[in-house]
Amino acid sequence: MGKDEDKEMNIYANEDSVNLHNVTTETENTRKYQTPQHTGIDCVKIRRYRAAVVCLVLLCVLLLTAVIALCVHIHTNNTDYTGDSSELLINITNLAEEKDQLLTRNTDLTEKTDQLRTKIVNLTEARDQLVDKNMQLAKERDGLLSSNRDLIKQRDQLHQEKNELLKSIHGMDGWIYYQSNLYFVSSEKKSWTESRRYCAERGADLIIINNREEHDFVKKISANANVWIGLTDSEVEGSWKWVDGSTLTSGFWDPREPNGHRGENCALTYSPGWADYACSDLFQWICEKSILK
C-alpha cells in the first residue's frame, strides 16, 4: 500500500512539472513571435501574467511538497502505529496467558494451602492425643514405681518376718515347716474336739487339706497313721465342712467312705484315704497354722 501511494505522488509531481514546462515554453514562444506592435500596457499585463503564473507554479510546488511531506508523515506514523498496535496485541495476549497461568497457580496454591491446613489440624489433634497419652503413661509409671517401692518394702518386711519365724521354728519342738505353713503331728491321742482345742491353744487349728500335694505331705509326716483332720458334718449330715467354715468340694476319701455309721461325723486320714469316725474316738491329730498370720 505504501509503494502505490509513492507511485501516485510521483505521477502527480511529473504532471505538474510537465504543465509548468509547457506554460514556460508557451510564454517563451509568445515572446518570440510577438510583434513589436504591442503597447506598454500589454507588456505590463504580460509581466503580471507571468508573475501570477510563476506564483501559481510555486504555490503548486509548495502545495505538492506539503502534500508529499504530509503523506510521508502519515504513512510513517501509520506504519509506526500499526507496529505499535501489533506489539500491544502481542503484549495483551501474553499478559492474558500469564494472567491465566497465575490464576491456575493461585488455585493450585489455594488447594495445597487447604490441604496443609487440614494436615496441620490432624497433626495437632494427634499431637494432643499423644500428649494426653504420655501424661497418662507418666501417671501410670509413677503409680507403678510407687507400687514397686511398696512391694519392695513388703518383700523386705516378709523376708525379715520369715527369717524371724524360721528362727522361732527351730525353737518349737515337733513343728514342721511346709509351703508357708507350720504343721504339728501329735504323739498322743484325743477326741476330735479335744484335738482341735489343743491346736487352738497354740494359735493353730486342725489341718485343712487343699490339694493332692498337701495330702501326700500329710501321709508322709504322719507315717500313714490314723490322724484327725479339720473336716466334719456335725451340723448337717452329709454336708462336710472344714474348720474355717468352707464347704468341701473334692476330697481323697477311701472308696468305702464316708459311710455315716454310728454317728460318724468327724474325718480322719489314714493309708487308703479319708474316713468318717465318731468324733469321740481317740486318734492322733495334725495342727496347722500359717506363718503369715
From TrEMBL:
It holds the Pfam family Lectin_C. InterPro entries: C-type_lectin-like, C-type_lectin-like/link_sf, C-type_lectin_CS, C-type_Lectin_Domain_Fam1, CD209-like_CTLD, CTDL_fold. The keyword Acetylation does not apply. GO terms for molecular function: carbohydrate binding. Residues 92-168 form a coiled coil. Signal peptide: none annotated. Keywords: Coiled coil, Disulfide bond, Glycoprotein, Lectin, Membrane, Transmembrane, Transmembrane helix. The chain crosses the membrane at residues 51-75. Residues 178-288 form the C-type lectin domain. PANTHER family: ASIALOGLYCOPROTEIN RECEPTOR 1-LIKE-RELATED, C-TYPE LECTIN DOMAIN FAMILY 12 MEMBER A-RELATED. This is C-type lectin domain family 17, member A-like. It comes from Carassius auratus. The gene is LOC113087077.
